[in-house]
Amino acid sequence: MLLKHDIEFTLNGVTKRLTVDVTMNALDLLRDVVGLTGTKYGCGEGECGACTIRVDGETRNSCLMFAVDFDGRDIVTIEGLAADPKADALRESFVEHGAVQCGFCTPGMVMQASHILDAHPDADAETIKRGLEGNLCRCTGYKKIVDAVESACCGGR
Amino acid sequence: MNVAEKPVITADSLIGQRIQKKDAPEKAAGKTRYIQDMIVPGMLHAKILRSSRVHARIRSIDTSAAKALPGVHVVLTAADVPDQQPIGVARDHLPLKGERVRSLRDEIAAVAADSEEIAEAALKLIRVEYEDLPVIATPEDAVKADAPLIHPAPLDADGKPKTVPPKTPIAFAGKADNIAMRFDYTHGDVAAAEAESDVVVEDTFQLHYVTHCCMGVSGVIAEFDASGNLLMYSNTQVPFLHKREFAEYLNIDPSRVRIIQPPIGGGFGSKLDIYPFEVICIFLARAAKRPVKMVFTRKEEFLASPTRQPVLLTLRSGCRKDGTLTFRQVHTLHDNGAYTSWGATTPFVMMQTFSSLYRVPACDYHTTVAYTNNPYAGSFRGYGNLQATFAIEQHMDMLAERIGMDPLDFRLKNAQEAGEVTGQGMTFKSCGFRECLTTAAERSDYRKKHADNLAHRDAPGPVKRGIGIASMLHVGGGAKIYPSDGCGTILKLDDFANVTLITGASEIGQGSETVLSQLVCEELGLPISAVTVVNNDTAITPWDVGVHASRTTFIAGNSAIGAARKAKAKILAAAAKKHGCDEATLDLRGGFVVVAETGEPVVELARLMRNLHFSDKAELVMTTFYYEPPSVHQDKAFKGDVSAAYAWAAQVVEVEVDTDTGIVKMTKVTGTHDVGRVLNRLGLEGQIEGGVVMGQGYALTENLIVENGVTRNPNFRDYKLVTAPEIPEMDITFVESMDGEGPQGAKGVGEAPAICIAAAAANAIYNATGVRIFALPFTPEAVYRALRGKAEKPHWEAWQPE
Helix axis angle, B385-402 relative to B757-769, nearest 10°? Predict the structure, then answer.
């Protein structure tokens, strides 16, 4: 029999109480239980960054977390960024700079970029590249993504 | 001056502007629903059981325990679908394998269940007994006279080969050898040209396995309605071809197959063929009478989606002392894998590069595509051209060095020009090749750096700098492979002067929605925001051959312009009639009908549209257009002008080679592309940059390691994609050769940027170190060995059929 566990966490500003299987991973919780599909499955083993979310402000690969790890945490997904004006500017910057092609990596990229912006408001291109190292993109060659984040950093100055 | 009284609307062109991608805001907000995100009420989840052996006879399959698992709806094996038809270009591939598995990816059984977890659990309960067969791990072994057959003829009860009617597909009839395909092409007299050569070089090059790594894994949803009509949600790049093929496999009328494409998480050619998982998902939906969804894991994506084709290539090239190319002779051996997909047909493109990238009086080209027990090769951005260019462009440098000529001058001396009809019959109507070469060379300071690096080769310090150039030719105006290479458009204007652009051309992230909208708006004088694009439902959109061959901007673009021009003529005629003026004096700008000469508004377009709709002779402004390019099918000798236009590029790659570690760092790429004309500058730059970095991965980091048929690195940890900190500085410029047939003068560019990078990198490494490496990829280990003379030079005896 599967063990279940009660958890309570904040998801995009709203408190959630759920009972989850202890084996469930956090990405499945977000996508299949809560129904927020902006967070993507790209590899399931923490290599591609498509499932990047923010946990207590830090970025994490949600595919590497258990759902029970959400207990007591503040979780923000790409859908939750909508409430943040800084994130609005970041998303607009992605659009304006052509940083989006097929778009599958984009939510993870935007989440990671939002963290770079918070942690390094004056980040230069090299810092941004290092910050995005864990997020794979097959379409853009990264340059326009780096440009978009750099512009959002400068824009915030 | 009283502007307010008499406003003037100027003609502001959208062409060449930086236009934001129409679908980008949704994607950046995480709102776009890909196939992975879709839920169809009542749907089941499916998984496939794949072979655990590389090559084996299947003795038995026992699915009874899987069928008994609660939550399992259907378990299928080949025995359950006796009507299954072979798929693929050679019809050598049954989706479910019942008697024999020929590679590790082979599909043996499939389960549809209430959840993915239950389906996974059911797979573990299926028992398969195998009898191992000898594994053919290389194409060299496959073509040996005594090689075991990958597709032997089926035997009758007496153990003799069964007699089958003529034209029986390979999947049922077998094949008497391991040769999947042969290609033989020639122009000119190679022997005579060789006799006239002052210098001849011959080398063998080895190209490796790589795979597409679309960030969105493969997936499909299939469902049948109560009348037996099939609806598929599919990531395909060729919906109209697949509609026909699925109907054939299911033995139903094609009108009963409808394909809807949700937004696609990357294509790059991987979605040009029908794969077993799609057919199997249909079988499951048919059996379960429920919608069935099947989505790959990343590991499955690595193991069971197509690859770029590995190639062994021996090239013999000659020139005169004055730098004139004399001939090329090419023998290649392609690893087909166990089944035939589009990878087998890449010689179509390879031979074009050998015959026509430069003026070469004689060219002789032979390819053997051999069956092995490896993963099978499909189509991948560049379609054989990366492999061909890798060999040719190294030989260009080697020949230049032998005759003491600068590599750039050598290329310029032999470069094609507009007006050339090549030995293969390709006609270069627009050709900015020379300008690409000179621009890329000047912007990168190629000549000076090339000389400086040579001079510093023996300077102290482990890190050596190198610079290399390479060029490419690729189709840029479609490719006439199918009976039609066309695309249809339906254009509808509503009573607010908004446009619905219904096109057959699919969006796979490359930006076709945006560039097609731009071309329509240029004709109708409307902002991009006035256009809604419908492009993903075969029940609505007009026919298109598919997203491949860098054709969409050119073909779908011309189609969209055709429909827009018809709409414009209709609108101007109506305006002229209503306002009593000559339609030839009118134009559309800024949402108004205006007097062309002065820009003076005549009537607001939306108002005119409403008047048209609500008049006593009510009329809709709705037009259709089908564009077929003026290209031709090649004849049986592969000759003919297969594309309506050709794209050119030269790319200069700069590297730093750490001779202590073998690490090659790509520091800068200077690329100049003849794109005909820049349409959406932002989208174009993005395509080029993405292609350059894909080429960088092919050259330096990506390597799908297949040993004895087993893929050793099916994950992003061990299959190394380029990451953000590793990208080179990129200086991308464009030559606008204004193609006469192109939409607003433009040509296709989707595949071009990935093609020369590996070749240019090889030349750069040679420039840095004096060591030429003939095999890809240039991993630290390979480079380290090569620098110490320990690299084994690729070699094979060019194989000829008896």
Answer: 30
Residue of B nearest to A125 (CA): B725
In terms of CA atoms, which chain B residue is nearest residue A83? B29
**Stretch 2-41 of chain B: residues touching chain A, C-beta under 8 Å:** 18, 20-21, 23-34, 36-37
Q: Is the pLDDT of residue B645 over 70?
A: yes
Q: Number of structural domains, chain B?
A: 4
CATH number, domain of B562, equals 3.30.365.10
Asked if residue B731 is part of any domain, the answer here is yes
Which three-class secondary structure state does DSSP give residue B735? Answer: strand
Domain with CATH 1.10.150.120 in chain A: 84-155
Q: Which two tokens stand for residue B440?
A: 């890329």
Architecture of domain A4-80: Roll (3.10)
Distance from CA of B460 to the nearest CA of A (A): 29
Contact B28 A139 (CB under 8 A): no
Assess whether pLDDT exceeds 60 at residue B435.
yes
Look over chain B and give the mean of its residue pLDDT values, rounded to a whole number: 96
Are B594 and B652 in a shared domain? no
CA nearest A58: which of A12, A115, A15? A115
Write the pLDDT tens digit of every residue in B459-512. Answer: 999 999 999 999 999 999 999 999 999 999 999 999 999 999 999 999 999 999
Domain A84-155 = CATH 1.10.1040.10: no
Residues of B in contact with A98 (CB under 8 A): 18, 20-21, 24, 682-683, 685-686
Residue ending a domain, choose from B627, B644, B670:
B627
Decide if B522 contacts B14 (C-beta within 8 A).
Answer: yes
Res B800 pLDDT > 80: no
Q: What is the pLDDT of residues B106-127, one digit of tens each?
A: 999 999 999 999 999 999 999 9
Torsional class of B218: left (φ above 0), alpha (ψ -120 to 50), beta (otherwise): beta
Average pLDDT of the residues in B382-401 = 98
Which neighbouring-strand residues pair with B35? none
Say if the ipTM goes beyond 0.90.
Answer: yes
Q: What is the mean pLDDT of residues B640-645?
A: 97
Query: Secondary structure of chain A: what % helix, strand, coil (to 5)?
Result: 40, 20, 40
- For chain B positions 468-527, those within 8 Å of chain A (CB to CB) are 508-511
Phi, psi (degrees; rounded to nearest 5) at B382: 105, -30
pLDDT bucket at B763, cuts 50 / 70 / 90: very high
Contacts with A, B 691-730, CB within 8 Å? 691-694, 715-717, 721-725, 727, 730
**Residue of A23, A101, A142 to mutate for B, most B C-beta atoms under 10 A:** A101
